[in-house]
């Protein structure tokens, strides 16, 4: 057996965070998978003693959905300019009350299949399902240069007006199809080779007017207390994006899930893992879109507070693949 990957799970509340536990994914000799949770912390996988872990089997059928011929199938050999988004095993729990990761994967694929029929230059290019033994093990997408978060961190100049216009055009296109992204944030906007904005990561999407399920966007970048998938959610995210791009000093690098309450008047992560994760202009509309039903409003006060939640601190470590 070998350590496949491990991450520290961080517990956060109101801008504060603390170490919760380490979650470890173990891979057996036949490709079978297990997970374990421990209060110990590790710098490298070599420090982990598998024999001392209480291993729980991962039902891969609950992670990888059955492939259907109605879905686009990716080439058997993935090209270097593609990225394969796989189920995030860190979110797996052996709990019958939990919605299987396979369901979340199929839900995201549903959005990509619709967008395949209606592509847009500011929305991630979908290249099909990666299939093994009749099951979907990943979603093949075009690979892009870097996220907005990474670009802002390296301080390389770019045309901010044009970039925001690209995000706006992408959102307009989604809304024309009845799709609400519900998670517009710097992790989920990337740059292509021409420095165009590309909207990625559709694991929180819903049709306009639907009630949220398990996945409902990123705290600090969504309307506080939102219960419904509405166009106004993306408009709010776009307004926060404009604030982030034009006023980066209001962004707290130690609090990547939200705006720092000390620096911003509005205080401010998926079922599948990916590397690729604003005053709104008048042309987009400063007023929120009308909800489908009169009672389906996501009201948001002037200040958003992050609810207590688990979030995964990525890039802590990974074993051989």
UniProtKB/TrEMBL annotation:
UniProt-listed InterPro entries: Kinase-like_dom_sf, Prot_kinase_dom
An example Gene Ontology molecular-function term: ATP binding
Low complexity bias: start-end ranges: 260-275
Region spans: Disordered: 257-321
Compositional bias segments (type: Basic residues): 297-313
Entry-linked PROSITE patterns: PROTEIN_KINASE_DOM
Organism for this UniProt entry: Claviceps purpurea (strain 20.1)
Protein kinase domain boundaries: 19-321
UniProt-recorded name of the protein: Protein kinase domain-containing protein
Coiled-coil segments: none
């Amino acid at each position: 057996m070998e350590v496949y990957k491990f991450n520290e799970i961080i517990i956060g509340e109101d801008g504060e965070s603390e170490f919760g536990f380490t979650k470890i994914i173990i891979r057996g000799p036949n490709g079978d998978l297990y997970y374990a949770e421990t209060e110990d912390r590790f710098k490298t996988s070599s420090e982990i003693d598998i024999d001392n872990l209480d291993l729980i089997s991962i039902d891969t059928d609950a992670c990888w959905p059955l492939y259907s011929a109605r879905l686009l199938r990716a080439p058997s050999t993935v090209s270097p300019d593609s990225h394969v988004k796989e189920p995030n095993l860190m979110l797996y729990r052996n709990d019958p009350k939990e919605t299987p990761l396979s369901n979340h994967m199929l839900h995201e694929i549903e959005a990509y299949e619709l967008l395949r029929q209606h592509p847009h230059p500011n929305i991630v290019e979908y290249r099909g399902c990666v299939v093994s033994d009749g099951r979907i093990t990943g979603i093949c997408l075009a690979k892009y240069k870097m996220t907005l978060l990474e670009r802002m961190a390296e301080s390389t100049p770019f045309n901010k007006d044009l970039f925001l216009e690209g995000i706006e055009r992408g959102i307009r296109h989604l809304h024309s199809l009845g799709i609400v992204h519900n998670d517009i944030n710097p992790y989920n906007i990337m740059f292509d080779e021409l420095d165009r904005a590309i909207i990625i990561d559709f694991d929180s999407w819903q049709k306009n007017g639907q009630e949220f399920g398990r996945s409902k966007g990123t705290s600090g970048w969504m309307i506080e207390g939102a219960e419904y998938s509405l166009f106004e959610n993306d408009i709010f995210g776009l307004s926060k994006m404009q604030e982030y791009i034009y006023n980066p000093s209001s962004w707290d690098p130690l609090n990547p899930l939200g705006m720092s309450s000390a620096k911003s008047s509005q205080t401010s992560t998926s079922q599948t893992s990916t590397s690729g994760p604003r005053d709104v202009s008048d042309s987009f509309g400063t007023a929120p879109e009308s909800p489908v039903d009169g009672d389906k409003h996501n009201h948001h006060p002037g200040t958003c507070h992050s609810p207590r939640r688990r979030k995964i601190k990525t890039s802590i470590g990974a074993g051989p693949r």
